[in-house]
Amino acid sequence: MTRSSERSVSVWEGTGGPQPELAPLREDVRADVCVVGAGIAGMSVAYHLAKEGRRVVVLDDNAVGGGETGQTTAHLSSALDDRYQVLEEVHGRDGARLAYESHQAAIERVGEIARTEGIDCDYVPLDGYLFLGPEHGPELLDRELAAAHRAGFTDVERLPRAPGAPFDTGPCLRFPRQARFHPLEFVAGLVRAVQAAGGRVFTGTHVSEVEGGAEPSVRTDDGLTVRAGAVVVATNSPISDRVSIHTKQAPYRTFVVGATVPPGSVKDALYWDTREMYHYVRLQRTPGGEEVLIVGGEDHKTGHADDAQARYARLEAWARERFPVQEVRWRWSGQVMEPADYMAFIGRDPGTGMENVYVVTGDSGHGMTHGVIAGMLIRDLVLGRDNPWASLYDPARVTLSVDSVREFLKENLDVAVQYTDWVRGGEVGSAEQIAPGTGAVLQRGGQKVAAYRDEAGTLHERSATCTHLGCVVSWNTEERSWDCPCHGSRFAPTGEVLNGPAPTPLRHVEGGVH
User: Beta strand 474-476 with 481-483: parallel, antiparallel or unpaired?
Assistant: First the structure.
């Protein structure tokens, strides 16, 4: 995803070393495996297969890690956001156990790869602390402690407060063996390791079509083709599947601020609260030695709100009440995909005609560990090996718990409601009301028009119909993007795809540039 707003800058930008210099694909190629997406999921899959001697080709229309990997807060956590007590209700005790084992294995795998490949990505094992929000009582911690122990996470313990926190957290759970790292440095190291193993990585290459079959193929906007024995779609939201997976997950935007704190004033740990709009906190040191407190939260469903500044302000206020914040220097947002049953979709694409195509999506706020899980799981699936996690993450699974069915119905009812935008008027009466650097949806006869006026005053008009399944996009002021409120596709102000599942840009309309 191309960053389209100068005001939204993540702490990772400018804090890493030189990124790999890669070129676009220039010719048709063949490979054993073609991976679409060069974020942590795609590069983890490529790394694990390249290490098995497979000829791997990776394609991305952006820079390495230029999508959601570059927007993460980079918690490496097996203390899962949806809580073990919920996972046990939805997936049973075995499912909760597999969730713990797979995420813990991913944390440790990052450390192993960093050591083996000599990747200087600031990987640091540390503790994580879960403390109560104001709406919850200590019995919530008791239930979670018991559920975590039943899942095999037996060294979780309850404490009267989080040690080293600069505020009184009250009772909390300590989750040992969590970690933090620099995600872009890690992914850049994976690129070098893949290349050393004979793999090839191409950026600036937009994939427009994925075709399954005995010899699946990938086609680019430039008309080039990669043929392979297997294709892996690791694009945050899959561009290969049009409907089936997208009905089982929903896109949310999450917001982050990065603020300097006095060195040593906050214990280096992960912190989370239990609020519905929960907060997640960690430290990151800059090359200059400053300590940055990274605070995330304030999520909303993609395309359903346009109030980023207010959300950043609430994050800052929450942080200042609890931590010795000096200066807020970074503000950014990212997109997470929330599955109805709380587990990612990693495995064979369940779509018709998608034989030998695999997908990675549904990060549920744990994209870093889910990405590494994908590397290990898809490696085994491609190579025909048994993997104990396969059924838990199977994209074709059907989960019939009360919670998962309720979540499925709620999100799909919301999608249905979004189609009523077609009978509503535009957001503004005329294009003259659109200020430079902003956009709005216009009603022109029976057509919805996404109109953006650039800083020079030129008006750019595209169809406001998402090219995935036809919802009407909304303007995102902070990111300067058109966001689809149904399945999370995002487009640049002038219509180019920033984030799938939409495969193609917003369509031109007659007289679309003035």
Answer: antiparallel
